Amino acid sequence: MKRDVAALLMVSALCVATCVATCAAADAATGIAGICASLPDGAAVRVVLRDGAETEGRVAGWDGAVLLLMTEDGGTAACAEVDMISLWKRESHAKGGAKVGAVTGGIVGCLGAAMLAVLIDAMDNYGDGGSHDGTDDQHGDDVMQLVVTGTSAGAVLGALLGGTAGSALPDWKLLWTRPGIPAALRSAAVQRRLRSGGLEVLIGSASARRWPQDDGLAFAGRWRAKLSPRVWTALEVARHDVDAYEPVSMDLGGSTPGGDVACWQAGVLLQANLALGEVRPYVVGGLGEYWWRENFLGGSWGGGLEAAIDPRTVVRLEYRRHGNLQRLAGADPTLESMMVGVAMTW
Known about the structure:
By secondary structure, this protein is α+β, with helices and mostly antiparallel strands. It is built from four helices and 14 strands. It is flat.
């Protein structure tokens, strides 16, 4: 009996030892390989090598021994597994920003709609002496619909703005590090070559095509976020000082000076680069709210040329045409702008 128990214990110990050894060997053999194989094409990563060099780029392939990256300038870099000491992946704050923006926008939209409902109700009471003539139920339905619409619109707009702003903020996550490497080497200060966002200022001139006038000053500010190697998005606030003329009746002929008319614009734009490298032509389109003689939903389209003068600085020349999508004004308030800008990226 004792001999059987001893044999059983010995067999169990051998099984456990075999499993541990097998698992350790599998981890040692497939740890970094498994991580690299699981990275999707286009994922933004940072690799630190044994010689202290570091590379950032987007995954372009893994052959079992070499991780191929596409760098910011459109070139490629090959990182051998035997030379790696740490591997990082860049995460985005887009989801968190969208959640915060949706909640904030929903609250603001709800409060704004409620205040508007109170104002409308006060105006109705003032106009009819406080009597609704049996329309209280309908009035309550209208208020509820207004609040729901305001809350929904605020949440959608807030999510869009928050997601765009959050996607420009990088968050590097350590995926793997080689055992036995000092922490100071694994997390050495890395020059971030892969751009994810930036702040930009632009200045130039603007004109309103449908009115005879001189060009006016135009300037803008942008918060930029990179969505892919070729696609950027940005939140934009701009002002166009247009020296416009008011059209008058055909019986009188001509036009009368209207003076400087400032057109404020706030919205989102999308930029698609037509090439990679140090100099990049691109096309751009935008959507946003415009405050001019009439407040309206407007759109814009155009193109330009941007160039990287160092790893963190980009300059651009851009033309855009802006139009009224709602056609609320008496004349179509089409604008044209030509601006130069500089962006600090990270």
